[in-house]
Amino acid sequence: MTLKSTADNYLKKMFDRNASFKEGQWEAINSVLQGGRTLVVQKTGWGKSLVYFLSTRILRDSGAGPTIVISPLLSLMRNQMQSADRLGLRPATIDSSLNAQEIAEIEQDLSQGNIDVLFVSPERLANEHFMERTLPLIYGGIGMLVIDEAHCVSDWGHDFRPDYRRISRIVRGLPSHVPVLATTATANNRVVEDIQEQLGAMEVIRGSLARESLHIQTIEMPKKAERLAWLSSNINKMPGSGIVYCSTISDCELVARWLTEKGISATYYTGRLSKDERISREESLLQNNIKVLVANIALGMGFDKEDVGFVIHFQMPNSLLTYYQQIGRAGRKLDHAYIVLLHGEEDESIQQYFIRNAFPASEDMSIIIDLLESEDSLTVNEICSKLNLTESTIKDCLRLLQIDNLVVKKRSEYSRTINPIQLHDARISNVLANKEHELERMKSFIYTKECLMRFVIRELDDPALKDCGVCSNCAGEFVSADVQEEIMVEAEIFLQRSYFHFDSRKQWASKTRIPENRQCDPGFALSRYSDSGWGRLVRKGKYQDNYFAEQLVIASADALRSWITDNYQDESFIISSIPSLRRPHLVSDFANRVASQLRLPYVDLLTKIDSRPEQKKMNNSHLQEQNVRDSIKVNKSNYVGYSVILIDDMVDSRWTFTVAGYLLRESGYGHILPFALSSTSESG
User: Fold this and answer.
1) Do the beta carbons of residue 323 and residue 159 sit within 8 Å?
2) What confidence tens digit (pLDDT) does each residue in 489-511 have?
3) Radius of gyration of the chain (CA)
4) In a 3-state reduction of DSSP, which class is residue 651?
5) From residue 233, how far is each of 194, 227, 484 by CA, in Å?
6) What is the C-alpha to C-alpha distance for residues 187 and 350, in angstroms, rounded to an integer?
7) DSSP collapsed to 3 states, 510-575
8) pLDDT (average), residues 587-612
9) pTM exceeds 0.70 for this model
10) Cβ contacts of residue 22 below 8 Å, gap of 6+?
């Protein structure tokens, strides 16, 4: 049998006897089977995974070693492992959710040739055990290397992940006969050139990226309440089940809660969920057990459901490449799917925040290098205690420094190598400039009068440009932008009552446990600082009026009254506040007025005894804890034994509440309920 007839037989086995290859699929498979290095740029739903699964089946039949697939998302790996089963392939994945015993079992299977396809994340390439023990165990050596979502290799890519840069070293170390396949749906000419620069010359197999089934519309809708009202009024009019994309974790949770309250079956999906929770929620969407999954970027590349009827963006994404990838979840096997982008007033500030934090600053990298040159080796915790940088910044710096071989990690300690310092400031500046450019193009897309699909695929340098004929600019709006006033009022009330809940800290920055009888209870904030509504009033009260409006007092008292009724029916409470030397009366005056509303005693339980820098200037837990410790003391009072509502204007790291609550409980007070007007946490 010829290779082509063998491939045809496997294709029919995988699907049915009438199955045939799409344009370009056999050419890609043949390139791989000839030992070539191939880059496939094809639209979502084209079947890029079919190329490497079918190639793997034929290579394994000929005695080649297993395929290694470097894949960026756990959801992608799980989805594709199911596809591998159809060809009788034995897949496995090594990811962060596995324990040592599970990894050892996979290693044994690799050494015995019992695994055909191994999925790993790019971050696994930074794992010393994986590189030095797991890979050498592979029976027969690597048969094929696949880099899925290969745009992540490129510094220019919209979803650049630094650990992908390690792949070029692996590729250079492979025998010349081992095929390398890179696949993506979102690469323009510049990204393609960058991929080839890093992975070597590759045959590029490229097809048209237009998606004929997608009906696209954009709607400018500044207020969050208006968008919530629009969603609840229109989602049930959309066909089948679908996805609502949000830019932040907190908005995923907020939108899912709103839709559920309005009787629409919905749940949220973010990277903070456990593996089991993510699998369960993916399955709910796959089986159409819910109408909508509200997700952030954690549900993206490779999630494969053929009948997604709609994709709605609650906020503008960072680029048209991201947008194309996300709308590509819809309409794979449907004649018509509906795509709506709602553009809100907070969109640009959210994306600018992500751009600012995309890469650590070169001066931060230099500071860490200087510190490591003066020390034998340090853990992340030890670096945090010495430098005023966030823990995530320190980890990002160390990862980039490892990739550039300027720092080496042994167990949990990092030390400086002898390699000369070479920081890539120019490259990072170029990447950030490109992100700014992509954001501007995204904004232009919202207001363009030309065909929306044409606008998108032009950004991906698709040569086959033509009008789609079905988007709102080509064929007229397919959904109204109007919102009923009464539903918008309901959404406004919902937002005002959507408090930001936070757990108490369970351990000190040193990782030693805080005794349970010294911890605060779970607390909450009336608002998010960046939101309109209460957040706007909080900003005005703190920085303009030096006085919090009576509306905030009433809203806070109502929220606390409900919280106490639901959770502390038999407790006797007093109210106190976090003291401040900079604004000595702002919070205490507010807390006094809340106490009057609740008809509870207000007591100054704490005194600030030492002027320290503002907490917001401390960038990691070690310094935040140190900054609060020994700066406050507990005053004598006649209310020892009472529970305390402890009020502050802002909460972020929770260290002020943690230390103050510890001291109050140590002094004999009961439950400590932290309450703040706003959360300034950006982690959402």
Assistant:
1) no
2) 999 999 988 888 999 899 999 88
3) 28
4) strand
5) 44, 10, 8
6) 24
7) CCCECCHHHCCCCEEEEEECCCCCHHHHHHHHHHHHCCCCHHHHHHHHHHHHHHHHHHCCCCCEEE
8) 95
9) yes
10) 46, 47
CA-to-CA dists, residue 361 to 174, 410, 415, 425, 521, angstroms: 34, 25, 20, 9, 37
- The two domains 3-206 and 499-679 share their CATH topology (first three levels equal): yes
Segment 53-76 mean pLDDT:
87
Give per-residue pLDDT as tens, 196-230: 988 889 999 999 899 999 999 999 999 999 999 99
**Which positions ≥6 away from 248 have C-beta within 8 Å?**
296, 315, 350, 684
CATH of 355-426, one of 3.40.50.1970, 1.10.1040.10, 3.40.50.11890, 1.10.10.10: 1.10.10.10
Four-point Cα dihedral 161, 163, 164, 166, nearest 10:
160
β-pair partners for 575: 602, 645
**β-strands 632-634, 606-608 pairing:** antiparallel
E strands, 411-473, where?
413-416
Percent of the chain residues topping a pLDDT of 70: 96
Quote the pLDDT of residue 229: 97
**CATH class entry, domain 499-679:** alpha beta
562/569 Cα distance (integer angstroms): 10
Residues pairing with 339 in the sheet = 216, 311
Give pLDDT, residue 301.
Answer: 58
Weakest-pLDDT range from 131-135, 210-214, 446-450: 131-135
Q: What confidence tens digit (pLDDT) does each residue in 629-683 have?
A: 889 999 999 999 999 999 999 998 899 999 999 999 999 999 999 999 999 875 4
User: Domain 214-348+447-494 sits in which CATH superfamily?
Assistant: P-loop containing nucleotide triphosphate hydrolases (3.40.50.300)
Instruction: Give the three-class secondary structure for 104.
Output: helix
Helix or strand (DSSP H, E) at 442: helix 425-447
Rounded CA separation 391/397 (Å): 10
CATH number of 3-206: 3.40.50.300
Contacts of 560 (CB under 8 A, 6+ apart): 594, 598, 645, 673, 675
Task: Compare 124 and 26 and report the one with higher pLDDT.
Answer: 26
| Half-sphere exposure in the Cβ direction for 318 (13 Å, CA) | 22
State which amino acid sits at residue 235.
Answer: I
Say whether pLDDT at 359 is over 70: yes
Mean pLDDT of the region 427-454: 92
In angstroms, how far is CA 227 from the centroid of its own chain? 22
Residue 34's CB: how many other CB atoms inside 10 A?
12
Helices vs. strands in the chain: H and E counts, helices first: 25, 22
Average model confidence (pLDDT) across the chain: 90
Residue 607 one-letter amino acid: T
- Lookup: tokens for 582: 């900079």
- The predicted structure's pLDDT at residue 684: 40
pLDDT confidence of 26, banded at 50, 70, 90? Answer: very high
Lowest mean pLDDT among 16-25, 47-56, 71-80, 334-343: 71-80
> Taking Cα atoms as reference points, which of 88, 80, 50 lies closest to residue 282?
80
Domain boundaries, the chain: 3-206, 214-348+447-494, 355-426, 499-679
Strand boundaries in 299-429, DSSP class E: 310-313, 337-343, 407-410, 413-416
